[in-house]
């Protein structure tokens, strides 16, 4: 059986000196760097909006003196309209909390709020213009809206890249004290460690039944995290580790009264309290908070694999694959010539893979190895570097010179768009599994077969060949549980970046 859940890690006894030596990665208090960051966002947003509106006015009218045509208002210049538009736009960005500390740097949610604020603003303008009989120039709005929205999204993307870079070097961190059972604490710490771009760093833990006098640590990712007491020692633990966020997981040890008491105890401290529900890889669209009988219950919607969503995905796959094949046809032709002229054998390599509901199909790739490479697997198996059931070699002697280039930039995968047109694959989906892999599946891993395998997917943008078997399974299951068209578009965008950089491919 494939190990998917992380086993409980033993708690290693350490000396007091070792516990004291565990570093807190955060060098600047979260509130301090967040305040500076939000100020910079305000300035950037203002610059982008002013530039977009000014450009729209200049391109349409050439100056600020042009007057608006109106049956109810007279002598209203576009200069005044532009000033009002800038003020309203910036106001809407604030009303929709696009610079809230809870969403800045979070990606999709931040972009969604910006897009929603902008579209609502122009909807209000359209209604106001209709009611007041203002004849606003369509070209003026047609330039300002897309230019401003694109500029705002691009500027936030740049700021996200800056934050991710700093967090990768241990800066701009949110230090976390985790409270819960040993298994849950360790799993949550591992999740935070994987999401380095989110900037959550566990600096201490409290586990039920632990004595504050015992010096112990939990090791996660090669880093020792001190155990600072039990669930009753949270306030004292905060003073020791300096965390600015308390994350509670496996709440059965605390109970309703215990969590309520903790909330009261933390009111006098400048820290945030978050509760991890213990569900892995379930995204926001499937979660809804509903108060029932005074309890904040999280309702989890079932994933939808049929109906309108599947029809929309199939339609998108067909159109995208058709356009892709047309646009990359010169690359396909040049690659076919290079493969055929540099080594003996067919241009395409056909590999049996398992598709939707476990149905086999022939996946197409440009041949990147010598002809008959499959017959050499047995002699090379002792050097296998692949994870789980996968056979991989970083320096595979069967790969041709042209094949190395094709693999580095994933050009050998491009014929799979033909599989998409045949409805055997999707543009985005889980990694196409081999028959041997599927036969070894056990339990939950079979859920990978609920959707079509993809030309790209979370596995493609998260390390590709460098992923462990467990991480590959986890990412595939996460995609199956949460797939959406918006998510697919984000994965496609990230795939382009990963392929251009040649990350994790061999």
From TrEMBL:
Entry keywords, A to Z: Membrane, Transferase, Transmembrane, Transmembrane helix
Record has Lyase as a keyword: no
InterPro entries: Bact_transf (IPR003362), EPS_sugar_tfrase (IPR017475)
TM segment ranges: 37-56, 76-96, 117-134, 140-159, 318-339
Record localization: Membrane
Membrane association type: Multi-pass membrane protein
Cellular-component GO terms for this entry: membrane
Bacterial sugar transferase domain location: 313-500
One GO MF term: phosphotransferase activity, for other substituted phosphate groups
Superkingdom per UniProt: Bacteria
Keyword Membrane appears in the UniProt entry: yes
Pfam families: Bac_transf, CoA_binding_3
Family (UniProt): Belongs to the bacterial sugar transferase family.
NCBIfam families cross-referenced by the UniProt entry: EPS_sugtrans (TIGR03025)
UniProt-recorded name of the protein: Putative glycosyltransferase
């Amino acid at each position: 059986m494939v190990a998917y859940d992380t086993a409980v890690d033993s708690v290693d006894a350490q000396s007091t000196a070792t516990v004291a030596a565990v570093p807190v990665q955060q060098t600047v208090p979260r509130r301090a760097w967040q305040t500076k960051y939000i100020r910079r966002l305000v300035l950037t947003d203002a610059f982008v909006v002013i530039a977009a509106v000014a450009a729209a006015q200049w391109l349409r009218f050439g100056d600020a003196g042009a007057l608006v045509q109106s049956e109810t208002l007279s002598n209203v210049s576009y200069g005044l309209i532009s000033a009002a538009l800038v003020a309203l736009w910036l106001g809407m960005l604030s009303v929709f909390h696009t610079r809230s500390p809870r969403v800045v740097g979070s990606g999709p949610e931040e972009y969604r709020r910006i897009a929603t604020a902008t579209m609502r603003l122009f909807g209000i303008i359209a209604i106001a213009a209709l009611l007041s009989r203002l004849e606003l120039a369509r070209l003026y709005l047609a330039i300002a809206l897309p230019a401003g929205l694109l500029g705002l999204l691009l500027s936030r993307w740049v700021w996200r890249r800056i934050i991710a870079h700093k967090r990768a070097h241990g800066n701009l961190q949110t230090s976390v004290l985790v409270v819960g059972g040993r298994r849950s604490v360790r799993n949550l710490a591992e999740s935070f460690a994987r999401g380095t771009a989110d900037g959550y760093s566990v600096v201490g833990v409290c586990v039920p039944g632990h004595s504050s006098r015992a010096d112990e640590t939990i090791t996660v990712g090669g880093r020792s995290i001190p155990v600072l007491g039990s669930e009753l020692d949270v306030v004292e633990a905060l003073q020791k580790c300096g965390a600015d966020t308390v994350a509670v997981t496996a709440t059965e040890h605390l109970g309703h009264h215990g969590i309520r008491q903790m909330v009261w105890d933390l009111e006098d401290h400048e820290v945030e309290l978050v509760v991890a529900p213990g569900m892995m890889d379930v995204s926001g669209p499937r979660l809804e908070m509903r108060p029932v009988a005074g309890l904040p219950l999280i309702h989890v919607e079932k994933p939808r694999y049929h109906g309108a969503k599947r029809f929309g995905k199939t339609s998108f796959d067909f159109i995208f694959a058709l356009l892709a094949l047309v646009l990359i046809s010169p690359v396909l032709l040049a690659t076919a010539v290079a493969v055929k002229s540099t080594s003996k054998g067919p241009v395409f390599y056909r590999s049996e893979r398992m598709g939707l509901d476990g149905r086999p199909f022939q996946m197409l790739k440009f041949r990147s190895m010598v002809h008959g490479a499959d017959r050499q697997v047995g002699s090379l198996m002792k050097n296998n570097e692949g994870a789980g059931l996968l056979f991989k070699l970083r320096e595979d002697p069967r790969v041709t010179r042209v094949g190395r280039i094709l693999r580095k930039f994933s050009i050998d995968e491009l014929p799979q768009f033909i599989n998409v047109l045949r409805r055997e694959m999707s543009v985005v989906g889980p990694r196409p599994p081999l028959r041997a892999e599927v036969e070894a599946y056990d339990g939950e891993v079979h859920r990978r077969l609920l959707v079509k395998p993809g030309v790209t997917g979370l596995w493609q943008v998260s390390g590709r060949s460098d992923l462990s078997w467990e991480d590959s399974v986890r990412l595939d299951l996460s995609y199956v549980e949460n797939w959406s068209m918006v998510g697919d578009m984000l994965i496609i965008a990230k795939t382009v970046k990963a392929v251009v950089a040649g990350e994790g491919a061999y």
